Amino acid sequence: MKIDDIRGMTPDQLGEALLNLKKEQFNLRFQAATGQVEKTHRVNEVRKDIARIKTVLRAKQTAA
Q1: Which domains does the chain have, with CATH numbers?
Q2: What GO biological process terms are annotated to this protein in UniProt (predicted)?
Q3: If 31 and its partner were Cys, which of 19, 35, 36, 47 is the partner (CB 3.0–4.6 Å)?
Protein backbone atom coordinates (compact mmCIF):
# COMPACT_ATOMS: atom_id res chain seq x y z
CA MET A 1 0.00 0.00 0.00
CA LYS A 2 1.41 3.38 -0.98
CA ILE A 3 1.29 6.46 1.22
CA ASP A 4 -0.54 8.48 -1.44
CA ASP A 5 -3.31 5.88 -1.48
CA ILE A 6 -3.53 5.98 2.30
CA ARG A 7 -3.68 9.78 2.44
CA GLY A 8 -6.59 9.76 -0.02
CA MET A 9 -8.72 7.56 2.22
CA THR A 10 -11.32 8.80 4.68
CA PRO A 11 -10.89 8.06 8.40
CA ASP A 12 -13.60 5.37 8.19
CA GLN A 13 -11.81 3.67 5.31
CA LEU A 14 -8.53 3.89 7.20
CA GLY A 15 -10.10 2.27 10.25
CA GLU A 16 -11.46 -0.56 8.13
CA ALA A 17 -8.11 -1.07 6.39
CA LEU A 18 -6.35 -1.07 9.76
CA LEU A 19 -8.71 -3.73 11.07
CA ASN A 20 -8.13 -5.91 8.00
CA LEU A 21 -4.36 -5.54 8.27
CA LYS A 22 -4.40 -6.44 11.96
CA LYS A 23 -6.36 -9.60 11.15
CA GLU A 24 -3.88 -10.46 8.41
CA GLN A 25 -0.99 -9.80 10.80
CA PHE A 26 -2.52 -12.17 13.35
CA ASN A 27 -2.95 -14.88 10.73
CA LEU A 28 0.62 -14.42 9.49
CA ARG A 29 1.99 -14.62 13.03
CA PHE A 30 0.02 -17.80 13.61
CA GLN A 31 1.32 -19.29 10.35
CA ALA A 32 4.88 -18.31 11.24
CA ALA A 33 4.57 -20.00 14.61
CA THR A 34 3.43 -23.23 13.00
CA GLY A 35 5.94 -22.98 10.16
CA GLN A 36 3.34 -22.67 7.41
CA VAL A 37 4.01 -19.12 6.18
CA GLU A 38 4.80 -19.03 2.46
CA LYS A 39 5.40 -15.32 1.90
CA THR A 40 7.74 -14.35 4.70
CA HIS A 41 8.22 -10.83 3.32
CA ARG A 42 4.51 -10.15 3.79
CA VAL A 43 4.97 -10.04 7.59
CA ASN A 44 7.15 -6.91 7.33
CA GLU A 45 4.94 -5.34 4.65
CA VAL A 46 1.84 -5.67 6.83
CA ARG A 47 3.64 -4.26 9.86
CA LYS A 48 4.80 -1.21 7.89
CA ASP A 49 1.35 -0.69 6.32
CA ILE A 50 -0.18 -0.66 9.80
CA ALA A 51 2.32 1.98 10.90
CA ARG A 52 1.58 4.10 7.81
CA ILE A 53 -2.15 3.98 8.43
CA LYS A 54 -1.76 4.84 12.11
CA THR A 55 0.48 7.79 11.21
CA VAL A 56 -1.99 9.20 8.69
CA LEU A 57 -4.93 8.66 11.07
CA ARG A 58 -3.10 10.53 13.83
CA ALA A 59 -2.22 13.39 11.47
CA LYS A 60 -5.85 13.69 10.36
CA GLN A 61 -7.05 13.69 13.97
CA THR A 62 -4.68 16.46 15.00
CA ALA A 63 -5.55 18.53 11.91
CA ALA A 64 -9.25 18.44 12.75
Answers
A1: 3-63 (1.10.287.310)
A2: translation
A3: 36
